[in-house]
Amino acid sequence: MAVLDIVTYPNKVLKQISKPVERFDKDLHKLLDDMYETMIKNNGVGLAAIQVAVPIRALLIDIGDEEGKQSKDTLIEVINPEFLTWDGTQKDTEGCLSVPDYFDEVERYKNVKVKFFDRFGKEHVMEAEGLLSVAFQHETDHLDGHLFVERLDYIKRKKFEKEWKKLLKQKRKK
Fold first, then answer.
1. In this structure, is the dihedral angle defined by the CA atoms of residues 11, 155, 144 and 140, taken in order, positive or negative?
2. 109: domain CATH number?
3. Where is the active site?
Protein backbone atom coordinates (compact mmCIF):
# COMPACT_ATOMS: atom_id res chain seq x y z
CA MET A 1 0.00 0.00 0.00
CA ALA A 2 1.05 3.56 -0.62
CA VAL A 3 0.08 6.98 0.62
CA LEU A 4 -1.16 8.98 -2.34
CA ASP A 5 -1.01 12.74 -2.89
CA ILE A 6 -4.28 14.49 -2.15
CA VAL A 7 -5.43 17.04 -4.71
CA THR A 8 -6.29 20.33 -3.01
CA TYR A 9 -8.52 23.26 -3.83
CA PRO A 10 -8.47 25.10 -6.22
CA ASN A 11 -7.06 22.37 -8.50
CA LYS A 12 -9.41 21.92 -11.46
CA VAL A 13 -9.16 18.13 -11.16
CA LEU A 14 -11.65 18.42 -8.30
CA LYS A 15 -14.25 19.86 -10.71
CA GLN A 16 -14.23 16.75 -12.90
CA ILE A 17 -17.26 14.50 -12.93
CA SER A 18 -16.09 10.98 -12.17
CA LYS A 19 -16.88 8.08 -14.49
CA PRO A 20 -18.61 4.90 -13.32
CA VAL A 21 -16.39 1.99 -12.37
CA GLU A 22 -16.75 -0.80 -14.90
CA ARG A 23 -14.03 -3.23 -13.81
CA PHE A 24 -13.84 -4.65 -10.32
CA ASP A 25 -10.29 -5.92 -10.61
CA LYS A 26 -6.93 -5.92 -8.83
CA ASP A 27 -6.22 -2.37 -10.02
CA LEU A 28 -9.37 -1.16 -8.29
CA HIS A 29 -8.46 -3.14 -5.17
CA LYS A 30 -4.99 -1.58 -5.08
CA LEU A 31 -6.45 1.90 -5.52
CA LEU A 32 -8.92 1.32 -2.68
CA ASP A 33 -6.15 0.00 -0.43
CA ASP A 34 -3.93 2.99 -1.22
CA MET A 35 -6.85 5.36 -0.68
CA TYR A 36 -7.50 3.83 2.73
CA GLU A 37 -3.90 4.26 3.78
CA THR A 38 -3.99 7.84 2.49
CA MET A 39 -7.23 8.64 4.31
CA ILE A 40 -6.01 7.21 7.62
CA LYS A 41 -2.59 8.89 7.35
CA ASN A 42 -4.36 12.24 6.83
CA ASN A 43 -6.91 11.74 9.63
CA GLY A 44 -9.88 11.65 7.28
CA VAL A 45 -13.24 9.95 7.61
CA GLY A 46 -13.81 9.83 3.87
CA LEU A 47 -11.94 10.03 0.60
CA ALA A 48 -13.14 10.02 -3.00
CA ALA A 49 -10.96 8.69 -5.82
CA ILE A 50 -11.00 12.08 -7.54
CA GLN A 51 -9.22 13.51 -4.49
CA VAL A 52 -6.22 11.38 -5.46
CA ALA A 53 -6.62 12.38 -9.13
CA VAL A 54 -8.44 9.23 -10.25
CA PRO A 55 -11.76 10.27 -11.83
CA ILE A 56 -13.83 7.17 -11.08
CA ARG A 57 -16.94 6.80 -8.92
CA ALA A 58 -15.24 5.20 -5.94
CA LEU A 59 -15.02 6.46 -2.39
CA LEU A 60 -14.25 5.35 1.13
CA ILE A 61 -15.98 6.17 4.39
CA ASP A 62 -14.78 5.23 7.84
CA ILE A 63 -16.45 7.12 10.66
CA GLY A 64 -15.12 4.56 13.13
CA ASP A 65 -16.84 2.52 15.80
CA GLU A 66 -18.75 3.82 18.83
CA GLU A 67 -15.46 5.09 20.26
CA GLY A 68 -14.38 6.66 16.97
CA LYS A 69 -11.68 4.05 16.32
CA GLN A 70 -11.18 3.45 12.61
CA SER A 71 -10.26 0.05 11.19
CA LYS A 72 -10.83 -2.13 8.16
CA ASP A 73 -13.86 -3.48 10.07
CA THR A 74 -15.54 -0.06 10.08
CA LEU A 75 -14.49 0.84 6.53
CA ILE A 76 -17.18 1.20 3.87
CA GLU A 77 -15.94 0.95 0.29
CA VAL A 78 -18.45 2.56 -2.05
CA ILE A 79 -18.40 2.08 -5.80
CA ASN A 80 -20.90 3.76 -8.15
CA PRO A 81 -23.14 5.17 -5.39
CA GLU A 82 -26.72 6.11 -6.13
CA PHE A 83 -29.03 7.82 -3.64
CA LEU A 84 -32.40 6.10 -3.50
CA THR A 85 -34.09 8.24 -0.84
CA TRP A 86 -33.31 11.20 1.36
CA ASP A 87 -35.23 13.20 3.93
CA GLY A 88 -34.92 15.67 6.76
CA THR A 89 -32.12 18.16 7.18
CA GLN A 90 -29.27 18.65 9.58
CA LYS A 91 -26.46 21.14 9.95
CA ASP A 92 -23.03 19.91 10.83
CA THR A 93 -19.49 21.20 10.71
CA GLU A 94 -17.55 19.72 7.81
CA GLY A 95 -13.96 19.72 6.73
CA CYS A 96 -12.24 18.18 3.74
CA LEU A 97 -8.84 16.72 2.99
CA SER A 98 -8.91 18.69 -0.28
CA VAL A 99 -9.60 21.93 1.61
CA PRO A 100 -7.16 21.49 4.49
CA ASP A 101 -7.55 23.46 7.70
CA TYR A 102 -10.96 24.91 6.83
CA PHE A 103 -14.17 23.90 8.57
CA ASP A 104 -17.67 25.30 8.31
CA GLU A 105 -21.28 24.40 8.92
CA VAL A 106 -23.13 22.81 6.01
CA GLU A 107 -26.75 21.75 5.68
CA ARG A 108 -27.32 18.22 4.39
CA TYR A 109 -30.02 15.58 4.38
CA LYS A 110 -30.39 13.89 7.74
CA ASN A 111 -31.24 10.45 6.37
CA VAL A 112 -30.22 8.83 3.10
CA LYS A 113 -30.58 5.44 1.51
CA VAL A 114 -27.76 4.58 -0.87
CA LYS A 115 -27.24 1.78 -3.36
CA PHE A 116 -23.62 0.97 -4.19
CA PHE A 117 -21.22 -1.82 -5.01
CA ASP A 118 -18.25 -3.10 -3.04
CA ARG A 119 -14.79 -3.85 -4.45
CA PHE A 120 -15.98 -7.23 -5.71
CA GLY A 121 -19.00 -5.86 -7.56
CA LYS A 122 -21.54 -7.01 -4.97
CA GLU A 123 -24.51 -4.66 -4.65
CA HIS A 124 -25.40 -3.18 -1.26
CA VAL A 125 -28.17 -0.90 -0.04
CA MET A 126 -27.50 1.05 3.13
CA GLU A 127 -29.51 3.49 5.18
CA ALA A 128 -27.48 6.19 6.87
CA GLU A 129 -28.18 8.97 9.33
CA GLY A 130 -26.14 11.56 11.15
CA LEU A 131 -22.42 11.62 10.42
CA LEU A 132 -22.60 8.62 8.10
CA SER A 133 -25.28 10.36 6.04
CA VAL A 134 -23.13 13.50 5.87
CA ALA A 135 -20.10 11.45 4.80
CA PHE A 136 -22.01 9.73 1.99
CA GLN A 137 -23.26 13.08 0.69
CA HIS A 138 -19.92 14.87 1.09
CA GLU A 139 -17.91 12.18 -0.69
CA THR A 140 -20.49 11.71 -3.43
CA ASP A 141 -20.38 15.46 -4.05
CA HIS A 142 -16.70 14.98 -4.91
CA LEU A 143 -17.63 12.41 -7.55
CA ASP A 144 -19.92 15.02 -9.11
CA GLY A 145 -17.21 17.70 -9.13
CA HIS A 146 -18.34 19.62 -6.04
CA LEU A 147 -16.74 20.63 -2.76
CA PHE A 148 -18.49 21.30 0.53
CA VAL A 149 -17.55 24.98 0.36
CA GLU A 150 -19.87 25.32 -2.64
CA ARG A 151 -22.76 24.59 -0.27
CA LEU A 152 -21.95 27.61 1.90
CA ASP A 153 -24.21 30.64 1.67
CA TYR A 154 -22.90 33.70 -0.17
CA ILE A 155 -21.43 35.46 2.87
CA LYS A 156 -19.72 32.34 4.21
CA ARG A 157 -18.41 31.54 0.73
CA LYS A 158 -16.84 34.99 0.40
CA LYS A 159 -15.35 34.63 3.89
CA PHE A 160 -13.91 31.25 2.89
CA GLU A 161 -12.35 32.65 -0.29
CA LYS A 162 -10.74 35.48 1.67
CA GLU A 163 -9.42 33.14 4.38
CA TRP A 164 -8.20 30.65 1.79
CA LYS A 165 -6.21 33.29 -0.10
CA LYS A 166 -4.63 34.39 3.17
CA LEU A 167 -3.77 30.77 4.04
CA LEU A 168 -2.17 30.21 0.63
CA LYS A 169 -0.04 33.34 1.03
CA GLN A 170 1.15 32.12 4.43
CA LYS A 171 2.07 28.71 3.01
CA ARG A 172 4.02 30.30 0.15
CA LYS A 173 6.10 32.34 2.63
CA LYS A 174 7.27 29.16 4.39
1. positive
2. 3.90.45.10
3. 139
Domain that holds residue 77: 12-173
For residue 51, the Cα-to-chain-centroid distance in whole angstroms is 8
Give the burial class of 13: count Cβ atoms within 10 A of its Cβ; 0-12 exposed, 13-18 middle, 19 or more buried: middle
What are the start-end ranges of the H helices in 76-153? 130-143
Identity of residue 122: K
Q: In the prediction, which pLDDT does 169 show?
A: 81
pLDDT at residue 153 in the model? 92
Total number of domains in the chain: 1
Query: What is the predicted pLDDT for the residue at 20?
Result: 98
**Residue at 3 is within a domain:** no
Binding site for Fe cation, by residue number, is 96, 138, 142
CA 8 to chain centre: 12
Q: Does residue 139 have an active-site annotation? A: yes
Residue numbers in the chain where pLDDT is lower than 50: none
Q: According to the model, what pLDDT value does residue 174 have?
A: 63
Per the residue annotation, which of 66, 94, 139, 150 is the catalytic one?
A: 139
Dihedral (Cα; 48, 51, 53, 55), 10-degree rounding: 40
Asked whether residue 5 is assigned to any structural domain, the reply reads no
